[in-house]
Amino acid sequence: HCAVSPSSLMSAGWNRRTWLSAGGFTLIHSRARSRAPSHETAGKLMRSGEDKKAVVWIEGNIASGKTTCLEYFSKTSNLEVLTEPVSKWRNVRGHNPLALMYQDPERWGITLQTYVQLTMLDRHMSPMSAPVRMMERSIFSAKYIFVENLFRSGKMPEVDYAVLTEWFDWITTNISIPVDLIVYLQTSPQTCHERLMQRCREEEKVIPLEYLESTHQLYEDWLIKRSSFFLPAPVLVIPADQDLPNMLDRYEENRDKILTANNL
Ligand SMILES: Nc1ncnc2c1ncn2[C@@H]1O[C@H](COP(=O)(O)OP(=O)(O)O)[C@@H](O)[C@H]1O
Ligand SMILES: Cc1cn([C@H]2C[C@H](O)[C@@H](COP(=O)(O)O)O2)c(=O)[nH]c1=O
Predict the structure, then answer these.
(1) From the record, what ranges are coiled-coil (predicted)?
(2) What ipTM, to 2 d.p.?
C-alpha cells in the first residue's frame, strides 16, 4: 500500500486542479447548464462530467414509505437507486450509534449526526452509474430535520449543535451537492407511527408519536411552507397516506416528471 499525499504530488509538478481532476473531481468556475445559478456553484468542488445527469431526492418522515418507493423505481432502466446508509448507522466498527442516540440523545446525538453527515456526503459524492439518480434523503434533511429536532427539543447541547452547523456550512459552501427535484412523500405522523410499529426496527421501538409530529412539522416548514431553511430544488409533493396499490398508481402518474427532473 503506497500513500500519496497531495503535498508530494504538488511538489512533483501537480497543482490543485490536476490532483482534483485525477480523483474525478473538478473545481467549478462556471457551468454551461447548471441546476443552480453560477454564483451558487462557482468555486465549489464537484464530480467531473455529472452535471448533465438528473438527481432526485426522496424525502419524508420516518417510515413514510421512502424505501418502498425506491424499491419500486429500482426496476427502471437507466436509473440508479441509493438507499439511506442506515446499516452503517447501526454498525460502525461494532458500535450502534442509532440505538445509542435513541437511548440517550443528549450524550449520543452528536455522535450519530456526525456519522450521518459523513455517510450522506459520501453518498452524494459517489460516482453516478446511470443518467438518473434517486437517493433516499440527503445531507440537507439530516441537518434541517434531525439535528434541528434534537436541538429544538433541548436534547442537543448548544456546543454540539454549533459544531455540527460549522461542519455542515463548510461542506455546503465548498462542495457542490447537485439536486434537480425533491420528491416529498407527505404523510400524517399517525400513519408513520403505524408503519414504524409494523416495521419493528429494534432501535425505533422507543419512538413516541410526539417525536414523529416534531419531525413532520420540520419537514412541512422546510418543503411546504418554505419558511425555515434553504430549498435547493423544486418540490414534488406526493400524498403518501394511501395504501400500497394506490401509492404505485401515484408513482406511475409522476414517473415522467421524476425521470426528466433535469429538464424541469
Ligand atoms: N403505502 C403503504 N401502505 C402501507 N404500508 C406501507 C406503505 N408503504 C410502506 N409501507 C410499510 O411501512 C413500513 C415503512 O416503510 P419504508 O418504505 O421502510 O419507509 P421509510 O423508508 O420511509 O422509513 C414498511 O413496513 C413498509 O412495508
Ligand atoms: C437522516 C437521519 C435519520 N435518523 C434516524 C431516523 C430513523 O430512525 C432512521 C432512518 O430511518 P427511515 O426509516 O429511513 O426514516 O434514522 C436520525 O436519527 N438522524 C438523521 O439525520
Answers:
(1) none
(2) 0.99
**Strand partners for 40:** none
Of 204, 211, 216, the residue with max ligand 2 atoms within 8 A of its CB, to mutate for a pocket test, comes to 204
Q: What is the DSSP letter of 220?
A: I
List pLDDT tens digits, range 34-59.
Answer: 466 665 777 888 877 777 799 999 99
21 or 106, higher pLDDT: 106
The reply to whether 136 belongs to the active site is yes
Distance of CA 98 from the midpoint of ligand 2 (Å): 8
Of the bound ligands, which one is closest to the alpha carbon of residue 198?
Answer: 1
Domain count along the chain = 1
**For the residues of 34-101, what is the DSSP string, one character each?**
-SS-HHHHTT-EEETT-TTSEEEEEEESTTSSHHHHHHHHTTSTTEEEE---HHHHH-BTTB-HHHHH
Phi-psi region at 201: left, alpha or beta (left = phi > 0; alpha = psi -120 to 50): beta
Identify which of 113, 122, 137, 147 to mutate to test ligand 2's pocket (most ligand atoms within 8 A of the CB).
137
The residue range of the domain holding 185 is: 49-263
Q: What is the CATH number of the domain that holds 119?
A: 3.40.50.300
